[in-house]
## 1
Amino acid sequence: MKRKGILIVVSGFSGAGKGTLVKRLVEKYDSYALSISATTRQPRAGEEDGREYFFLQKEQFERKIAENGLIEYACYCDNYYGTPREYVERQLADGKDVILEIEIQGALKIKEQYKDALLLFVMPPSTAELRRRLVGRGTETEEVIAKRMRRAAEEAEGIEKYEYIVVNDDLETCVTQLHEIIIAAHNTPNRNQEFIENIRTELEGEK
Ligand code: ADP
Ligand code: 5GP
């Protein structure tokens, strides 16, 4: 039986450590493919076009939307972010588990289109630690940090829409937990419908 890839959505408040976590996950295990999103926000120091994001002008991004080149997109803190279609569909067909590190509006759009998608939410150990990480990253102005903390308060309302939460306290523990959840998710009946139907059909002959 060919292994089927799962679409895995990882969301969480800005600064919770999603980026760090998924980077470590794909380094540690080779069954994952990490989707690179497109965005209209400015690159941070050290970020490279085509590595962290495809950095686009607003007009370029809107053209991608019009061409149906994104499987979802959303506006987050005044910028567009979206998931390019081609890479995701190719990797899933290849049997890879594809990771989308995206915010909540996008996550819900994915669930509408891909009913077997697995939705995971990364929690910080506490709000104080969240703020410490966001400030400590040193990539945003005070004003942007305040905006992201306000957005976190809104996003917190939607956590129950996700299947699992993982608490990113110790990074390595959290990476292992994430991987174990994904392994277990491969064995749910809804993600193995074809296999189940085949056995049922074969068993018909035993009646
Ligand atoms: P996000 O992608 O969720 O916005 P990042 O991955 O950029 O968050 O992490 C925010 C900051 O927190 C970074 O400086 C990162 O090094 C740090 N960080 C991430 N995970 C942990 C952890 N488990 N313990 C301590 N610091 C962490
Ligand atoms: P950042 O600017 O910190 O890189 O990302 C801001 C937010 O946008 C994060 O919550 C991140 O998960 C989300 N994000 C990144 N890429 C995408 C995407 O392709 N689609 C959606 N909907 N959100 C994204």
Note: The first helix runs from residue 18 to 28.
## 2
Amino acid sequence: MPQNYLGEFYSFLRFPSVSTDDEYKANLVECADWLVNKLGSIGLATQLVPTRGHPIVWARNKHQPGRRTVLIYGHYDVQPPDPLELWDSPPFEPVLKDGYVFARGATDNKGQILSHILGIQETIEQNGDLPVNVHLVIEGEEEVGSVSLPGFLNENRDALKCDVAVVSDTGMIARQTPTLSYGLRGVTAMEIKVTGPKMDLHSGVFGGAVANPITALAQLLAILHDRDGRVAIAGFYDRVKPLEDWEREAWRKLPVDGDKLILEETGVPQLFGEAGYNSIERIWARPTAEINGIGGGYQGKGTKTVIASHAFAKLTFRLVPEQRADEILELAKAHLRKNLPKGVTMEITTGHSGPWYITDPHSQLGEAAQRALRKAFDREVALIREGGSIPIVSQFREILGIETLLMGLALPDCRAHSPNENFPLENFEGGIRLNKAVLQELA
Ligand code: BES
Ligand code: MN
């Protein structure tokens, strides 16, 4: 691998492009500008498309009639690096250790999308052109639900007319194991705020006579699930399609022990989840309700005898076929309202949603993707579903009428969204080979 590839990867990683926090807005623009320069320098016509949020980077080669057109999608925004104290090295100062690059965004998604860019660069250097027409669309809002991208797709629907999307923003089930993902879970978000007294109160003077909003919130959150890990919201599973035997069998034959892997990677004392399913089935094919954040009351050092005025929690639900986000939010609201303890009020706000996705890995394009994966990694391809979500993928289908080939390069221990996120150079190089192979196969 040429030495400057690593330098360019580091430059890309040094931008703290955290999309959820407006404090970083200028950093996202700088990061997008860097991409525009990079893509322009390899000969692609590139533009920065402003949005109400973070800008979209859009590049294309010279399109020729009669060739397939491929949309390569990725994102340059990253998740917040917090909690900072759990990182072994600063999140936006990339370092290489034992063949792994450590930084926020190394895997999700900068390493993966940059490997595609470098694959395109190499092909152009070697052949003067690509074998297909290409659109590269790299957005800055994936980690906040791709708010502006559907508008961009709609506005540029004709210009973006293409045959298929290629996305490397999913997982590889094990090292050196090429993986085609044919399913994603959906996601939908809400925030609950529980209010008790109009101000924080002395817990000795008032405690016992007024409801404590933190207690009320804890009671609500505790009845989101039953003791066996099933979501206890009435109607939650009504549309869930049962996992079919052929798929369970296929997953059991994959060259990984999901339960063991998750125990080791997470450090939990034991596995827990919905009864009747193993870990892989729970993650890929079953819906969840997760509490992602909780707050209220005194968070400083020592003790403060207080009854807080408010408490809040942030929730997301992962969705599977055929669940609908708006319906799940309504069911959840009804469940929370019905069970709201006395003496407090509750406000619920809903956040972003993205639908689940299922495609056929054996379609003509799916088979082309499998050939490319085999070529790039010289191993049999694992066909999997994923627990994570990429909301825009179902919009590609709805707005552009295309299917998406999900060819991930993230390893199970890449620590996406966690401290010490990392990407192995092996996969960076594999991604470059994959890009070349897939454009060839799709041609
Ligand atoms: N790359 C992930 C999605 C992913 C991870 C898919 C692992 C499959 C396996 C993506 O960047 C991501 O984190 N998406 C968010 C979407 C949400 C913020 C709308 C997610 O899944 O939480
Ligand atoms: Mn992510």
Note: The chain has a mean pLDDT of 97.
## 3
Amino acid sequence: MTNILDLSLEDLKLWMRENRESEFRAKQIFDWIYKNVWDFDDMRNIPLSLRQKLQNYFYIGIPKILQCLKSNLDETEKFLLEYADGNVIECVVMKYKHGISICISTQIGCKMGCKFCASTLEGVVRNLTAGEMLAQVMVAQKKIGQRISNIVLMGSGEPLDNYDNVIKFINYANADYGFKIGQRHITLSTCGIIPKIIELADKKMQITLAISLHASNDTLRKSMMPIAYKYSIKELIEACKYYIEKTNKRITFEYALVKDVNDRREDAEMLVKLLKDMLCHINLIPVNEVRENKFRKPSSENIKTFYNILTSFGIETTIRKEMGADINAACGQLRRSYLKSNKQNKGV
Ligand code: SAH
């Protein structure tokens, strides 16, 4: 059986032709799905014979909501979702003045091994398909009853390690028959897989690229992120410059600030040197503390000092506002606590 959400409208039209059905049915079916009708039998304008055929070929891969946590501090909502094969992922909905944003997962787990991140502690199980990513948006949008206008690929997983599915997903999210979320409203965050950054640049997409930099020298970056053994900061910056040249888009550099690790004045100054002539923006993220590791948040005073150094050199910088601090909203934390309690219940 095929997940119908993994098909584009063109794919479904082709299936209709191959199965001696009228092409226009494809659009009707997608219209139902995007109206949150997720059972072929409820699609009233589709003839019974076609509904039966559809049921033999396809399923509508909507994950089950295992948990939905709402923050008491802000309006952040976090979902723990279970796919048909029993795998669970999480996604987070954040409400801002400019619209509603969803942070989706691109893989089940992650293999990148960043030392501060909870998503990677159990490794990667598998990639998510484009339809499975799309379904995160569908489920969340239905649950909150409001339109989601922005997507960030910043949940569990490394999007550029699942490149083809991610590109497909972006195209589906853009599609006129679907959510119509423009590329400008989509941000992709990567730990820096250079060949894929180049490929993305050559596509000249209008998405925002966010790079998880987190350190301004290779020795330090290697101690935080294994990917730094494969690609140096110099190579990464060159790839980013290529991306900017091709797309004319400003890049966001994410920098998770960790007490006594990368929060010194010298770190800020090195960062300035590295990025000062680039079309970019730095997003400082006071590290989300994860029980399993030793990375701790700097004091607010140190965060402010670090910020002041960057801005005094004219680098546009923001400090990420913590959202959903009371609901395990950091990458992978909810899934991890779910997996742990499940193991305990099963006596593993
Ligand atoms: N794999 C991608 C996207 C997922 S992680 C990437 O590396 O960019 C999304 C962002 O959250 C990345 O910048 C990641 O480094 C950061 N992150 C992960 N765990 C974190 C933590 N405990 N505190 C702060 N930022 C974290």
Note: The pocket of S-adenosyl-L-homocysteine is lined by residues 112, 114, 116-117, 154, 158, 189-191, 212, 254, 256, 285, 287-288, 290, 330-331 (CB under 6 Å).
## 4
Amino acid sequence: MSIALKILTSEDKEACETVKVSEEEVSLDKKKLFIESYGCQMNFSDSEIVASVMRGAGFATTASEQDADLIFLNTCAIRDNAEQKVRNRLQQLNHLKKKKPGLLIGVLGCMAERLKAKLLEEEKMVDIVTGPDAYRDLPRLIEEAETGQKAVNVLLSREETYADISPIRLNSNGVTAFISIMRGCNNMCSFCVVPFTRGRERSRDPHSIVREAEELFAQGYREVTLLGQNVDSYHYGNAQNGEQSYDFAELLGMVARVHPDLRVRFSTSHPKDITDRVLYAMRDHENVCNYIHLPAQSGNSRILELMNRTYDREWYMQKIDRIRAILGEDCGISHDMITGFCTETEAEHQDTLTLMEYVRYDYGYMFAYSERPGTPAAKKLQDDIPYDVKLRRLNEVIALQQKHSLERNQRLVGRVHKVLVEGTSKRSDGDLQGRNDQNKVVVFPRKDFNKGDYVHVLVTECTAATLIGHSVEEVAA
Ligand code: SAH
Ligand code: SF4
Ligand code: F3S
């Protein structure tokens, strides 16, 4: 499989990444924590909260699992293969534990929440199970585990937002950072386990969000991504009680005003909730990036109804039309798509392909349907599409996306783009890599530029995944 295709096949979206730490973090008298994150950006962001809580309890993070006194896996439950990955990793860690009997192993995050204490029965090497709303309790749970008992806290909360905890940036490039603005999800998409693993939706105090963005800017960061399962339903404050209330469009403006050189991105938008006000806020603030991740999940209205997405094909298309009318043809748009959902016919699958033709997405994250126990779809619908059919449909969706990604990138060749440099290119030390406004990766010769610089790059060629060019003096058109 080519690299270009790989970025689109979306196992990467729920990737696994090991946390690296800076030197000053590792101090000899402290106990050492090794933390590995799986799943979506929310989980990566949560690991930074966990590192902060654990620092308070006398733990420093380490990049070496061999050195660790405590290993956390922050897990994902979105598809069966996400959980299998964690189970395989636990088997590996079991070998380490046999060599080092004092080592404690904790499973955090969505798989912990889904399986609760059952995980302790199934995976005997696990000492601690902690759900996403119980991270403040970790120091106590560890003390309990240190006495040889198994420790579990999977209570979900209606209030917890960790607003007062300053995340410790892990594996950071020093330029881009995530800010969690809300937790949980109140939608009930029938295929999805997230409402069960992350509980009810709640929004974080906007002032604490702005403060975090200001601190990041002062530390040299130049881009923040505001994170939530459904950012467009962000809502803080009760207007009926006379309190000032804030919606997502207002929050976007507040964060954009932190500094014109701080780029602002956000994810994820739900087609039913993204409003014209959000689109206008994007248009009116130069530093709010021209890119929207707008998962469709299917292009067929009957399937969308079975999925309980609460919009149909036409509604989705109208949203795309609004985006293009307000933000122009250049606005980057990406999607999530599921193939082979319960009872999906060939004709309905074709509707997904024709929706993609209509939109011509810049990127896509595409998945074969994986039934999750306890979800509405698992309870009410038959997972009746054979795996090879799901996979064949998936491959068709991926191939079409590949074609569209290339076409969308080709439109941008010959133009100058303002690129925020994130670091050295993965392909060559002589090149730098960054992103343009539409979230596209741009590679160009290093010259004297550094991480965190804004550079104008004339794009001269492209692949489906990358724009390639060289720096120029003039300002982007
Ligand atoms: N909150 C986001 C997405 C969260 S999960 C949203 O509403 O769009 C990320 C993606 O995983 C989903 O958009 C969906 O495409 C995919 N996904 C979720 N549950 C799945 C399942 N059971 N099988 C396959 N893909 C799934
Ligand atoms: Fe899952 Fe739907 Fe919520 Fe996204 S909006 S997290 S897909 S239930
Ligand atoms: Fe996975 Fe939980 Fe995110 S299930 S996709 S880590 S919210």
Note: The chain is about 35% helix and 20% strand.
